[in-house]
Amino acid sequence: MSHAPLLPLDGSAVQDVEPEDARYSSSLRLLHWIRAILVLGMLSAGWLMTRLEDVVPSKYGTIYPLHKSFGLLLLGLVVIQIIIRLRTRLPKSSEILAPWEKHLAKLTHATIYLLLVAVPLMGYAMSSSYSHSDGITLFGLPVAELLPKNDTRFAMFQWLHRTMAYGLLALMALHVAGVVKHRYFDKRPGSDVLRRML
User: How far apart are alpha carbons 198 and 141 in whole angstroms?
Assistant: First the structure.
């Protein structure tokens, strides 16, 4: 037998606790923040190592191998995250947001996921095709180089890797700007989309 919800004496409605399905699953939330940290670290390391002189021992002895290892780790985490997203019920888009905001958010998310897969793959293709590559390792474990050595293709993969990385950085900045706008500047209740990822 169902009962009507109790109302306080002043007649105002009781505020419901936000349901758990209004947020992403705990596994997706955890992967989101781990991935965000890794991407920022990878972009910073990529920017640093391309500006170091070749005579700096740590450039090829430490930074490049770690960049490759974390790139492969990031690729694996993104694939796992995509699989979980496809098998998990996701929170609905906020009805408060304008249609153009919903479309922009979906496009931005889809492109970010595409680049999160493509950028590491282009990095792998660079190392695999470079004739003077010192190999690809995953934290010391050798990884097979599947592409034939071809420095012309290496140059193409290098350009794609760099261009896509900057594109990913730009989209992440747009993503963060959207979150900040909805959390701190929108005056509409329910527009704070960050709560779904906390």
Answer: 35
Cβ contacts of 104 within 8 Å, gap of 6 or more:
178
Kindly provide the residue ranges of all beta strands, DSSP E only, lying in 55-164, ordered along the sequence: 136-138, 141-143
Dist. CA 183–CA 160, nearest whole Å? 34
Taking Cα atoms as reference points, which of 83, 74, 31, 77 lies closest to residue 165? Answer: 74
Amino acid sitting at position 59: K
Mean pLDDT confidence for 27-56: 92
CB under 8 Å to 138, separation ≥6 — which residues? Answer: 68, 69, 72, 73
Determine the pLDDT at residue 186.
79
- Global pTM reads 0.83
Amino acid code (one letter) for 189:
P
Which letter does DSSP use for residue 186 in this model? -
